[in-house]
Design a protein that fits this description.
293 residues; L-amino peptidase D-ALA esterase/amidase; ten-stranded mixed sheet; two-stranded antiparallel ribbon; 6 helices; 16 strands; globular
Amino acid sequence: MHVMGNGGAVFREKTINVSLDGVSAKVVYHKHEGFETNTLLVSFDEAHRVFSTSEGCKRVPSVGITHIPNALFRHMIKSCDGFEKACPAYLEDELKNSLAATLGLPRRNVAFLSTAVSMNDLVVVEQSRQQLRVCCFVTAGAKNNALRTGVDEASWVERNGAFENMLGTINIIILTNCVLTAGAMVKAVITATEAKTAALQDLNVPSTYTPLNQATGTGTDNVIIVSGAPAKSFPSKNVHPTISGLIGSSTKTAVAEALKKHDGTKSNLREKWNTCWKLKLNVFAGKSKERDF
């Protein structure tokens, strides 16, 4: 056991095998501020350009996803004073800063995502075609706050001076052996987002807030795109059809498997979704009045 700062200690590590050159991955089981948790760390032989929907554009030698168990989340909320410090953005920044110290990493050297899903439910999917390769890491939980973008509202609510929300996030990290331009990385985010929504649709996942509607994601989903190292990768000014197809296919497969692994998204949600559609059809047929959810 390695004792770190911030009430942290690393208990063990689990290696994840990936086929991309110069890339290593592991799940670190550790304590953070006295609470047991775990973190996925994907590291590179040299710093890579990344685009994160959480942190923007960076050049880092590591990316990761950290598990925030409910007990740790409540502890973080209680340790804050006032609205400004209790808001999610502030908490996330504070967590990432202190977590990097816990893991012995300079904060500038890592791009983090966070989730209430344990890394025990992590899914990794690799796909290739000819010389092109894509590796997709996904954690997914949508049982409590699946929503339909453009219809449902944010779930943060203040009660008695404390902030509460329904936890659930779909986090996606995509690595490729293509050197991607900034525009290609943004387009890769679009492709991954479409693939995520397609997975939710295939599993018939309804919105938690308006169950007659098909869910498109959760309110806290994030994506990290990692461009390949110039010396080991193929240049790409755009996400051409082959890489785009690999990103879409690997993401869709990984999101679906991650949802099944964490939420048990199988026949139970299919039955719920089918029931919702029957209600909607009855409304159209004039057999019942549509409810407000």
